[in-house]
Known about the structure:
The complex is a heterodimer of chains A (454) and B (104). By secondary structure, chain A is of the alpha+beta class.
Amino acid sequence: MITKKDSFKILSPTAILGYGFPLESFMNGINEEPDLIAVDAGSVDPGPYYLGSGKSFTDRTGVKRDLRYILKEGVKNGIPVVIGTCGGSGAKPHLTWCKEIVQEIAKEKGLSFKMGLIFADVDKKDIISSIKDNKIEPLSHLPSLTEETVNESINIVAQMGVEPIINAINKQCEVILAGRAYDPSVFAALPIHLGFDPGLSLHLGKILECAAIAAEPGSGTDSVFGILKTDSFILKPLNNERRFTKESTAAHSLYEKSDPYSLPGPGGSLDLRNVDFTELPDGQVKVEGSKFIRSSKYYVKLEGVKCVGYRTISIAGSHDPIMINNIDSIIRNVKDRVRDILKSENIDGDIFFHIYGKNGVMGDIEPDKEASTHEIGILIDVVSSSQEQANTICSISRSTLLHFGYPGRISTAGNLAFPFSPSDIKMGEVFEFSMYHLMEIDNQDMFKLRIIDI
Amino acid sequence: MKNITEISKVIRSKNSSPFELTLDIILKTKEYYELLKKKECINKKIISELYNISENKINRIIFFDPANAIKITLMRNVVSGSPGDTDVYGAQQHGPLLNLKVDI
Lengths: 454, 104
């Protein structure tokens, strides 16, 4: 039975499950006798593909390696394990993928425990009825959500707060695998349940979810430790090479956030206006003053993507100064020629030429328009309504550019250096974010719990 | 005049959502930070020129005292991972800031 104490100790093994951690740091954390091992397993950073395809951006072997240590030590020592945004995006296929890895490890290691799976998938019917009840608001200057967009979207999830995780704790789950979760929730649920301050718990969770990224030197692949007290929390490195400083901890409030003073999340926002950081010996930092401001209505963030086509790419380079100097007009002419060739076949799609060495990273907003270089990389990137059409457009774009007779050309045997045979790569489905909206909810029933005895 | 790289220890960019890009400048000292803040060296007009975008695409500029940092949040031209995107994580869009000259 978990009971309230004066302090609550949390081990954060790594920034993303599957990124790895030094075993020594992790075991240093285990030796501190943590009350919780929590880890975030996902992110929206790698883009819309992973939510749409149901695949993880992390590697199965990497995830299994991390989970093996976490489960073994957690179960052996009776420490609850909570994992958030399983499988990288936290929809049902992702959660199932992670569950299967956990079951595999339990079998191999002979571990036995009560596992809770918390689903974050949202029923389209519920969203559509929420639209009608004016309970959906757009984020990031997006347009209002329409029924059509909901119907087009795949694997719609909502970021859960601490409540569904507390529900699983109350049902005596020892290992909790959560679908899409607000990153700090997996760290904050248990201490909030035990009566620790929600503001401090969530702020600590916000820092621990990135593991050692907030330390100096920062790292997303090293373990750190958090100690929650009634009026403060302490961050502690688990590796002699790192330390937390006032600056590194304060600066972390900026990371990936649009406003470092106020961080909105499920059910309210974290107010960091009056936070104080104090450096302690041994690279530790004490943090005070974080507050959670509960909102009058409970909102969760919805995430959804839709399929917009199929991609084929080709990678090549040029070392010809005449071609490099005229690349913009050459590309324009090649695009026109390709469209002209394919008009009779009724094939159309988007053709992007990413020119590395010129503006491949920044595109149109590249400030240095005049820079010259002795070689460029050319990525032909085609998106069309079917894989076959994308293949066709990419193939014809590649062959047209290879033999294009631009003005002043003296290298008449071919314009491109291909590193590979085959030169073209089928990339499959292309997704884009279609939903990034807040939905008002009256209760937490949407986050379904399934308990499995392992 | 000083180049921003002389007085900063961190200049970085990253998505703050799939639709937004956030730029952080963390100054080397409190003194530099206070000077930039007082003289309003970082403002929407300067950022719109550096990034070749209209001012209404700049959501906000926040001065964050605890970290001696300035945060600028912009709308992305292409949503993260949509066709035509060049930087899914938004982690390499800090380049234009490196040319910023400030009058301190």
